[in-house]
């Protein structure tokens, strides 16, 4: 473990005071610009949310609530990929191809990658100016309003909590291939213990574990694309073809064999598949050099998404007739078996297992930091923000794991009712967060200019502003509303809108209660 991972937060803050001074100016300037009363009060001291300084350490309440900056650029890039590349690509991509056809699927993934990239560009400016853990709801609180900040926090927490339950179940089922006579719950429990331990040791340990898990997935995809291209051009043989397959299967039944409308439904699925890239914003508060690491991770996101997702789809569709893709078996396994790679199914089972572990690892981290951030901002009791000497918020971690276990329980005993609603809410929650990110950056930039500062003073600027920001906002909003035209997903939209109303109602009830029952003053450090 490197020295910076073992430094105390106060020492780390003291050495980073010079670097943070510019973030302080950035946030204070944005806060001082004219705005609505609720938003301006929320932005009064954004600098305090960037990184703890020596002064903050004495001014903060008695609980030790500081996180450690233990992540490097390589961790950030792999975490952003690890949060995206999951079982959807390895297992269910064949179903997506069947719905929209080869060209339609490629088009949907291309549009989805563009939407994600635009959102990441807007998030980059906010994350560099204010690198704070749990950034989404903090930005929403400061630049939209405290009620919206509360809603975004709950939405994002729910997204990963529901994912945790499904990933724990998937891990147990995958292990059944090698150990068919052991109960599934044993392997699910082993996954829970492993992931909890990785998150409990330190942020550095979590980052290294995620780096390993994500590296396995990336290597498998690169190998799949490379071997597939060799087969496409006839360099290595593949069953069913006496000559090089080339790319004829992509357009054999027309460009849109099922019509163009299925492409819209596929775009919605792709948006859900790409959710997780915003983890860059969550990790910014624990990254050693966010001014360098965050933009680097963002700029590599698009081409990697294009390479891994669209590259894999092209290889699948070129080698397997699209109507046969993913019928009862992973397209990856079908291709490897056709080429004659031994133990293809076992290899992919291992890769998918690492994908599940990676998603669980990232999900528990994101859920934990959202609970910590809500405690740190006073949305929930502040003792949820308490950290141990390693900078790990153990109470928040336990709360996040409890949420994942409840989601797992609901998937077993109430799969057709409670769990179905949770999954519906989880799917659209990520898109709601993206909409908020794009709008927050628009408001932030306006206040920055109104405060008399120049754009050149920002360490990282969203390219193509305001077109990029408004493009992200409009495209995300459109993809959210398009759910209404998909009968199978219309229930998700209704459930999500109702849940948003419930979240706002919960916030206003909480605010009313706190006004009626003010808390006792917290003990201050000398």
UniProtKB/TrEMBL annotation:
One of its GO terms (biological process) is amino acid transport. Its main location: membrane. It is found in: Membrane. InterPro entries: AA-permease/SLC12A_dom (IPR004841), Amino_acid_permease_CS (IPR004840). Residues 21-53 have a biased composition (Low complexity). Keywords: Amino-acid transport, Membrane, Transmembrane, Transmembrane helix, Transport. It is a multi-pass membrane protein. The chain crosses the membrane at residues 78-97, 103-123, 143-165, 185-206, 218-239, 259-281, 302-322, 334-359, 392-413, 419-444, 465-485, 491-509. It comes from the Bacteria. Residues 1-62 are annotated as: Disordered. Residues 75-518 form the Amino acid permease/ SLC12A domain. Pfam families: AA_permease. One of its GO terms (cellular component) is membrane. Belongs to the amino acid-polyamine-organocation (APC) superfamily. Amino acid transporter (AAT) (TC 2.A.3.1) family. PANTHER family: GABA PERMEASE, GAMMA-AMINOBUTYRIC ACID PERMEASE. This is Amino acid transporter. It comes from Bifidobacterium biavatii DSM 23969. The lineage of its organism: Bacteria, Bacillati, Actinomycetota, Actinomycetes, Bifidobacteriales.
